[in-house]
Design goal:
Number of helices of chain B: 9
Structural class of chain B: alpha/beta
Number of strands of chain B: 19
Oligomer: heterodimer
Strand content of chain A: under 5%
Number of strands of chain A: 0
Helix content of chain B: 10-25%
Distance between the termini of chain A: 27 Å
Order of helices and strands of chain A: HHHHHHHHHHHH
Number of helices of chain A: 12
Radius of gyration of chain B: 24 Å
Largest interface: A-B, 86 and 90 residues
Shape of chain A: extended
Largest sheet of chain B: 8 strands, mixed
Shape of chain B: globular
Largest sheet of chain A: none
Order of helices and strands of chain B: EHEEEEHHHEHEEEEHEEEHEEEHEEEH
């Protein structure tokens, strides 16, 4: 049952969570239908004409150059590598997100551009190579000096600030991607019937619903 | 626009309503169903949550992953078009004061934004002056409004529980949802320090109430608009059904300029700018109803000067714009270490907390008047922009799966940390009653116009000691609750240096009082029927008429009063008094 039909069904009063569950099993079809129904952006979300123009203008611009983007990709995958649970930050296209977000939030532009430059200069001094061209052992040697704020040396503090921003942007980009959300185990954003905290979880925390809650709540 | 002329709409309406939010939507619904011909002016575009879809979208469908923008201050997925700053529509401030003015520009207005918290005022809330000597009493009592609250509950739908708390009247409730895990912890902790916790009262349908609207399917996204209309928004619950009567014409993108009056001083029409063609229009009505939001309605009245109304319309008592008051607000957040590494399951629930704390205090033992309620949040929400931010501040403090780590870091170990800390956040916010003061006001700025040439508002608002002491009490209470549940406070532990985190006036978006009602035309703009003392066919049905606003989100009372005023209008038309 496609979404438009389900909405029609809902309108005549046959709503149940089941109908919606059914409706949402076909995500591709849903996206098509939605586009026809409303004023939707490519991502399929409601956009005013001003927002469309604003987002398009951001996408038409480029902020980071190729060298910077390559360095960002290396850093992203140092921060979020592939592991047993999920893929890496570049698998989740985090560098593209970072390119967009610094245009959307200009306050990140100078700390990012300057931080990348700082990193390259440190790398040149030590290894006579730009950071992205170092081998992974050299890269981690440098990253270890800026990845731990409380034990970093005072002369590395600017690098610590940059790496913290890089870590935050990478994590936000990753855990808001499809890969990252699966990794976290967020299982919502779908029609369902809330029946309360599962029994085993209540037991784990030594909690229970009151008789009144059990009687009166949905 | 070389050839500026005013186009008069040929159709003469029984009622012209300015604004399609809670108050205007209700008036349109009531009057249309009574058979009146209604013109509904809305300053923003048409909107239907079933067509303008945000619900069940994923963070990656927004290029900024749901972060806020100037156009959507509550995030890229928020349903509401509007904000504290709107391009081309400035407002100004008296120096040394600040009021942040939120405006929604869309069908349904800010009912597309709010948290669906639907609280009745109680008997005491209509007579606060008699209790503490501050402000003024309303010209009506709880008994006057109760029948309308009852009908509203059934018409719109609300869940809650019967509690028999004297000043928190019970309604016609649908069953509430069970508390989430962190809410059970909050309930236990708050109760242990003497703070009452009861099921929330939200206008969300936990059961279907008619054939036009579906029941809630627990996606937690009311703020994005509901495609099956399972929550209240004015567009889906009031305006759409009103349109189906065939008695309502909506004119979208119509920015009202002025209420026009005739030689006898009665209101005749509303003039407006059509934002699409930038032409000037005028629409005539036997009754004019303002529901443009408290400050926008005051602005319209003050800009409607004529020989009969030289001080602005409904303003012979010189009170329009005065007694502006927003809720107080202060918040605190933290983490519940016992939830680290928690089991995953879907706990989205309804859009908002399943529990809240109504005011429990006794002002006789306190150093401030009036009270506040507490709203709560926490749990395993859908990640959006900002997720994981600042982990270097927490992953060195707590062992992760038994292992102590250095703060910060990277790699596989860091991924483990994000998983471990997910879903352990908790927070709470107070929403309290400020005293409506004559010295807090908006007026017309004599020097500034907006891009439509309409003179803009200038604000003068300062919190008094009463509100600051209330915020102090909030923070003391929050600290107690946090400690009682073993939470670690991570933000909002404020002190006197920033007024205990008391939000700037306007930030809570509950502003009211600027066109207040009363029995004395010398100290009020409207009578007890929301009708202007100076102009019998002019009504105001938004937050403007409020004498005081309790510690209860004002939407439910706006709608009950609008319903009541609308029936009065129909009755007065029948009696040929208008």
């Amino acid at each position: 049952m496609d979404r438009r039909k389900s909405i029609k069904a809902l309108a005549v009063g046959s709503l149940s969570a089941g109908v919606l569950l059914e409706a949402c099993k076909n995500p591709d079809k849903k996206a098509d239908t939605v586009k026809k129904e409303g004023d939707q952006a490519p991502g399929g979300i409601d956009r005013t004409p001003e927002e469309k123009a604003f987002d398009q203008a951001l996408m038409d611009r480029t902020f980071f150059n190729e060298h910077e983007m390559a360095t960002i990709a290396v850093l992203c995958d140092i921060i979020i590598p592939k592991d047993e649970v999920s893929g890496s930050a570049t698998d989740a296209k985090v560098p593209d997100f970072i390119e967009f977000i610094v245009k959307d939030m200009p306050q990140h532009q100078t700390p990012m551009r300057g931080g990348l430059r700082w990193l390259d200069l440190q790398s040149m001094k030590r290894f006579e190579k730009a950071f992205k061209d170092c081998d992974s052992k050299q890269q981690l040697q440098l990253i270890d000096e800026i990845a731990y704020p409380t034990k970093a040396k005072p002369e590395m503090k600017q690098g610590v600030s940059f790496f913290s921003l890089m870590r935050n942007l990478t994590a936000t980009g990753f855990y808001t991607s499809e890969i990252g959300i699966k990794d976290l185990g967020y299982v919502g954003n779908k029609p369902n019937q809330w029946k309360g905290v599962p029994d085993d979880v209540l037991k784990q925390y030594n909690l229970a619903y009151s008789e009144r809650e059990l009687k009166e709540c949905v | 626009m070389g050839n500026l002329q005013i186009k008069v709409q040929p159709k003469k309406y029984d009622a012209v309503i300015v604004g399609s939010g809670a108050g205007g939507g209700m008036a349109a619904y009531m009057l249309a169903n009574a058979g009146l011909k209604v013109c509904l002016l809305e300053a923003g575009p048409m909107y239907d949550p079933a067509k303008n879809v945000m619900q069940l979208k994923w963070p990656w469908q927004s290029p900024r992953r749901g972060a806020s923008t100037a156009l959507r201050p509550f995030g890229d997925f928020d349903a509401c078009y509007g904000g504290w700053q709107i391009d081309g529509e400035p407002y100004t401030q008296h120096s040394g004061t600040q009021f942040d003015w939120w405006r929604a520009r869309m069908l349904g207005g800010r009912t597309n934004h709010w948290g669906r918290i639907s609280l009745r005022f109680g008997p005491d809330d209509f007579k606060r002056k008699s209790i503490d000597g501050l402000g003024d009493n309303w010209p009506i009592s709880y008994d006057d409004i109760k029948p309308y609250y009852d009908r509203l509950d059934k018409l719109v739908g609300i869940f809650g529980s019967k509690e028999n708390i004297p000043n928190e009247p019970d309604g016609e409730f649908l069953p509430p949802p069970k508390p989430r895990l962190h809410e059970l912890m909050i309930k236990k902790a708050a109760t242990s320090v003497g703070v009452n916790v009861i099921p929330s009262r939200l206008s969300i349908l936990t059961k279907a109430i008619n054939n036009e609207r579906g029941a809630c399917f627990y996606c937690n996204q009311c703020s994005r608009g509901c495609t099956v209309y399972a929550d209240f928004s004015s567009s889906s619950v009031l305006v759409n059904p009103a349109l189906k009567t065939g008695n309502v014409d909506v004119i979208a993108n119509a920015m009202a300029r002025e209420v026009l009056t005739g030689s006898d001083g009665t209101a005749t029409a509303v003039s407006y700018v059509n934002k699409d063609d930038m032409q000037e229009y005028q629409v005539n009505g036997r009754i004019i109803i303002l529901a443009a939001s408290a400050c926008e309605s005051a602005r319209l009245l003050l800009n409607s000067k004529s020989s009969k109304h030289p001080n602005g319309l409904a303003n012979s008592g010189n009170v329009v714009g005065k007694y502006l008051h927003d809720s107080t607000g202060a918040a605190m957040g933290g983490i519940l270490p016992q939830l680290y590494g928690r089991k995953r399951y879907n706990e989205d629930g309804v859009g908002g907390a399943h529990i809240y704390s109504p005011w429990w205090g006794n002002n006789k033992n306190l150093d401030f008047p009036r009270g506040y309620h507490i709203e709560y949040w926490g749990g395993m929400g859908m990640p959006s922009y900002g997720f994981g931010w600042g982990i270097e501040g927490s992953n060195g403090k707590y062992p992760v799966n038994g292992q102590k780590k250095e703060a910060g870091g990277y790699g596989k170990s860091l991924k483990e940390d994000y998983r471990y800390f997910y879903g352990a956040g908790v927070g709470m916010a107070g929403r309290g009653e400020a005293i409506a003061l004559e010295s807090n006001y908006c007026e017309i700025d004599p020097n500034v116009v907006d891009k439509y040439g309409i003179p803009v508002l200038k604000f003068n608002y300062k919190w008094s000691d009463n509100e600051i002491k209330q915020a102090k009490h909030m923070k003391e209470t929050f600290r107690e609750i946090m400690h009682a549940m073993g939470a670690v406070i991570t933000w909002g532990d404020d002190g006197p240096d920033n007024n205990y985190g008391l939000e700037t006036p306007g930030r809570i978006i509950h502003e009211a009082g600027t066109v207040r009602m009363g029995n004395d035309p010398g100290s009020s703009a409207l009578n007890k029927w929301n009708q202007a003392h100076d102009c019998k066919n002019l009504f105001v049905v938004d937050g403007g008429p409020f004498v005081s606003q309790a510690d209860k989100n004002i939407t439910w009372t706006i709608m009950a009063l609008s319903m009541r005023a609308s029936e009065y209008m129909v009755d007065q038309l029948k009696k040929q008094n208008l």
